[in-house]
Amino acid sequence: MTIDSPNSVVHDHNQVQQTHRDPVPTSGPTPRSLAEVPAAAKALLHGYFLRRRADVAQISPQTAELIDQLETFTLGGGKRVRPTFAWAGFRCAGGDRTSVIADPALQVCSALELIQACALIHDDVIDRSDTRRGNPTVHRSIGATHGQRQWSGDGDHFGVSTAVLLGDLALCWADDMVAEAALPVERSVAMRPIWSAMRTEVLVGQLLDITVEASGSESVEDAFQVMRFKTAAYTVSRPLQLGAALAGADDQVIDMLGAIGDGLGIAFQLRDDLLGAFGDPAKTGKPSGDDLVAGKRTALLALALKSADESDPAAAQFLRQTIGHPMNDDELTRVRAILHEVGAVRAVEDDIDRLVEESLATLAQAPFDAAARTDLTATATAIAGRQA
User: Fold this and answer.
1) Cβ(74)–Cβ(114) below 8 Å
2) DSSP at 99
3) What is the pLDDT of residues 260-312, one digit of tens each?
4) H or E element that contains 132
5) In Å, how far are 8, 93, 191, 266 from 298, measured between CA atoms?
6) Is the torsion defined by CA of 335, 340, 342, 348 positive or negative?
């Protein structure tokens, strides 16, 4: 296993962690298939928000209203990709929905959505984005409310400040949700270094992303490094490993799932890069060509610049002069055409196909339950070819 285990303390292996809180409310049975995970995770998280909102209301009813904003953002959209892959890892490693570990395992898997909420809220602040999933971003929505209520001060600054704190709260509650899961101690010890590594990777990946963007890097290697740690690790690889650790998997299985997830996670982000350049706003919930206007240092852009420098210097110059600035329709159309003409789109599509094929080949040879392997294969194929 590639993650160092923390210093351990001798425990009774039959002991189950106890917390001072009541169990997180659940709704309905644990998932029978990966298709049932999103609804199960959403129901569980809704119960968690109800309880934590009451905690906040004891401090201030006024701030409790903001928890509604956080819940709406967390549960109002998204595909619950991370809990789904975590549950896939649990099943691949022999986890059974009827076992006593199933409910606390689902609780840990669901907590990944709070990590995602933190990352997206902060990412929208960093990128100064106006929309997410077809709605105003959290900081824009809260800033607008500030203006509607005619509060004092700068509404935009209030929106940004509040969004940062709500993202921090989501991260804290993700940790709380994991800590409160009634796991046998040996399972908690096994999954903790994975959870810790994942949190560090997503935050350092974000730091790398803004550093690469600020430096104007055109390196393909830099773009893939950002993808690997900002997105791939906490989207697929670490969730798969986390679920496997919850099921009691050995290091070989955890490492195998990490390798499978690394390829699938990068393929997921490469598809996201294509959607950021060519996606339909009605499906993606973002403005057309948003990543191109923002000047995101994606692998798609890095590959395009490298190829254009070699085959069409005039096109390379046009990309450098245009990307990262507001564009009219003609400029956006020309940029997109260049991405096709220099072969960058084809190269990204080929990389997606290769990464998925390699990951699924490894999965096919893995010593996993046949039904769990089939379910994960279908899920992996779907995310690589998604349209939103």
Assistant:
1) yes
2) S
3) 999 999 999 999 999 999 988 888 888 889 899 989 999 999 999 999 999 99
4) strand 131-132
5) 40, 34, 31, 12
6) positive
pLDDT for residue 11: 37
- DSSP summary character for residue 3: S
Topology of the domain comprising 34-384: Farnesyl Diphosphate Synthase (1.10.600)
Q: How far apart are CA 25 and CA 79, in angstroms?
A: 21
What's the rounded Cα separation, in Å, for the pair 45 and 110?
Answer: 7
Closest to 112 measured CA to CA, from 35, 191, 206: 191
DSSP single-letter state for residue 27: -
Identify the DSSP state of 135: E
219: Cα within 13 Å, side-chain hemisphere = 13
What residues contact residue 111 under an 8 Å CB cut-off, 6+ apart?
173, 174, 175, 177, 178
Say whether 183 sits in a helix, a strand or coil: coil
d(CA 360, CA 350): 15
Q: Give the H or E element holding residue 136.
A: strand 135-136
* C-alpha closest to that of 302 among 205, 383, 226: 226
Q: How far apart are CA 212 and CA 224, in angstroms?
A: 11
Sign of the CA dihedral with 352 first, then 358, 361, and 366 last: negative
Q: Which residues contact 29 (CB under 8 A, 6 or more apart)?
A: 97
Contacts of 23 (CB under 8 A, 6+ apart): 103, 180, 182
- pTM of the predicted protein model: 0.90
Contact 352, 267 (CB under 8 A): yes
Residue spans of the domains in the chain: they are: 34-384
Cα angle 26, 28, 31; round to 5: 100
**Residue stretches of the chain with pLDDT short of 70:** 1-29, 388
Distance, in Å, from the CA atom of 164 to the CA atom of 168, rounded to the nearest integer, reads 6
